[in-house]
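It would be a great kindness if you could assist me with a short task in structural biology. Thank you for your consideration; the sequence and its tokens are set out here.
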Amino acid sequence: MAKKAPKTSIRKVLVSAVMLVTALCLSLSISISTYLDVKEQKKLIINKLDMIAEIIAFNAQITLIFEDRKTEEKRLKSFNEVELVKNIHIYDIDDVTNKPVFFTSYNASKTPPVPLKVNSVNELKVPKITADYIELIKPVVYEGKIEGYVYIRGGLERLNKYINTKIIVDIMLTLFVLVLVLLVARGIQKRIATPIEALSLLLQDVSKNHNYNARAERSNIEEINILATNLNLMLARTQNQLERHKADKQEIKQLNQSLEGKVNQRTIALREANQELLNTLERMHQYQNQIVENEKMASLGQMVAGVAHEVNTPIGLGVTGSTLLRDKLSDIKTAFEQKSLTSKQLERFIGDGIENLDLIYRNLNRAADLISSFKRVAVSQDLELSSDVNITNLLTNIITAMKADIAVKQPVIDIQCADGLTISSKAGPLQQVFEQLISNSLLHAFKGIENNSIDINISRSNNQLSILYTDNGCGVPNSIRKRIFDPFVTTKRGEGGSGLGMHLVYNLVTQALNGNIALDEDYASGTRFIISLPLVEIG
């Protein structure tokens, strides 16, 4: 849950902002002023000490040369009146070691002496500033030769006192300015916040009591006057809108009352039209089911006609062979009864009889095979159960049964399937799917009898059977590719095509076999259907 922002008001924000900005500006200004002032005061003190050290060094030239300590001590005591100077050391240069040694010193009243600085000559050539003192060393030079050094130590008590006094004055000035700014800010915020509070109270009254007749009063602040003017305009428009809404509501109420009768009449008419439409749809479903069933029967009839044509040939040859054998047997009987039968005649009869019987046997076996294939198609598929189906044998039987139809366009049928591939499926629907696909290619794909081919590629992967059915015909027109499986879609309207063939295939694959079928729309060398069927392991 989001954390709620703390509540505040314009009064508090305005006063706080003014006070904060003023305090920051004053603090920054006073800090910078104090820093620069202290820096300048330190610089003046350093310059003053430096000047005193120069004077002492100038005066000490003769006393160092003649080693007149008493004269130098009297001279140094004159610095009692100089409050800044606290300690003075004068160092002489030893003639043997050429190093500074103590010569004389001066300590101000109530100021303790400081250790010798003979080892800090080089360091204190630059003034050293601490919290309470300033130290520096100046060389005593006579005719270009350093005769000694002057060490001077000054106190910073007056500077610190000056800083403390300045800080107190700055604080008092800051407090005075802040109080003055607070009073001014309160006056400004009262001048701004009062009309805003009046607008807020007006809006609360409008929100609570829906008093859109109220209007905001003008003030002496231009921005708030603009806000009040816009608020009054909004309230006036809202009032007008509410009045129009009230009038429209009344008008709508009257219209609703007048429309109720019309709605009831239209509802009755719509109910009757819907009932009539439902009846029409029911009849259309019946007609569609009847047409689909007729298509099934027509397909079966075409196959039966083809099978009958194929069966007539071996039966006709069998009848011819049996008739010829009977005629020869009649000749033998006559010769036997007339006792004119010769061995030569009997031998020829036996040879012809064996040949005719072989002819009859072969054609009767061929007819039996055709009848067996026909039985697989003629049996009802409605209640068919799954069984073990050898795919190679199934396709061979289908091609044999459709031999007469296939001979018209003479396609080369290439079956790529593993030998002995056996699945558990419904043989009837599966056979009818292949028959309908082949019939569709013969009727729609092939225009002539040359260079026609059909490729059937069947493979098994895990628990799925994949079937690629491909022909090299003219392909499916772009106008019907999206609707190829819809009923009554055909390019042979009036030429023997009902438009239910691929619809029947789709229903068989998706409903009877629980699989999927799709048209490969990217295949440009003919037509290709992709079929996927789920498989059940054979126990």
In short: The two ends are 61 Å apart (CA to CA). The first helix runs from residue 10 to 66.
